[in-house]
Amino acid sequence: MASAKQLYMALNEIIPFENQESWDNSGLLLDSGKDSDKVLVCLDVTSEAVRRAEETGAGIIVSHHPLIFSPLKKLSEQDLVYRLIEKGISVICAHTNFDKYEKGTGYCMAAALGLENIQFCEDGICLTGDLPEESLVSDTALKCKEIFGAASCSLPDKKVKNVFLCPGSGGGLTGVVLDSGADCFITGECSYHDVLDLRHAGVGVITLGHDLSERVSLPVLAGLISGRMPGLQVSVFTQKALTESV
After folding, report:
1. What is the 3-state secondary structure (H, E, C) of 45-64?
2. Gap between the Cα atoms of 203 and 69, Å rounded
3. Is 140 in contact with 206 (CB distance < 8 Å)?
4. pLDDT in the model for residue 241
5. What is the pLDDT of residue 240?
6. CATH of the domain at 52
7. Read out DSSP for 140-154?
8. Do 128 and 205 share a domain, yes or no?
9. Buried b (16+ CB within 10 A) or exposed e, 111-124
């Protein structure tokens, strides 16, 4: 058994919460004050995730995306935060501090793609790396679809070797991608105008979906918990993609 605060402190030793980006809201966001021997790891605290926590008896949820991002101005019984408080379930969120972990989100994506010569960028989140062999953007996108579940691309006939990778949202990184000299940008989501600018510069873009790009890292986050607190039963809840092809 452990309290949410004990688990938070254990995680803080590996993925310090002070390393989160200034705009982020990672940390122990809801503390029920109760101990639990079961932990549920998920990408987002959705109604489905809360239901799974209730079904499995998990008193602590560790999510990647923050439960509370914007200020709460009111609560009603329909709100997830209200339901979590009512059920006595605590929530810890490990977002950009986990992204910056040496084996965090970006690294998990790169490892799944088999990237070589990995170099992290200054932000500690994005990275560059080489594909095992030169291939068309379209072929790389198909491989991404097999691994992550979905992919779309621009400049499908361009041959690429070096890629710039950003988990989650890669909007606003056009300048950084171009400065890196990468042939292709792989990310969860990218704005229309960023794709236009990169295509004009001859850089391919592959988008996977914000959630699909990141959920490959959930087993690593669960492993950090099990490694630090082996007495806890840790399970991973993999939610359906936010959007699906029809």
Report:
1. CCHHHHHHHHHHCCCEEEEC
2. 33
3. yes
4. 84
5. 83
6. 3.40.1390.30
7. HHHHHHHHHS--EEE
8. yes
9. eebebeeeebbeeb
Say if 12 falls within a structural domain.
Answer: yes
The reported pTM is 0.95
SS3 97: helix
State residue 71's pLDDT score.
Answer: 85
243 in a structural domain: no
Residue ranges in the chain modelled with pLDDT below 70: 245-246
Domain that holds residue 43: 2-99
242 touches 46 (CB < 8 A): no
pLDDT at 242: 83
Give CA torsion, residues 125, 146, 227, 118, to 10 deg: -40
Task: For residues 131 and 66, state if they share a domain.
Answer: no
46 half-sphere exposure, CB direction, 13 A CA radius? 12
- Domain assignment of residue 134, yes or no: yes
Predicted local distance difference test score (pLDDT) of residue 245: 67
| 115 and 78 part of one domain | no
Domain tally, the chain: 2
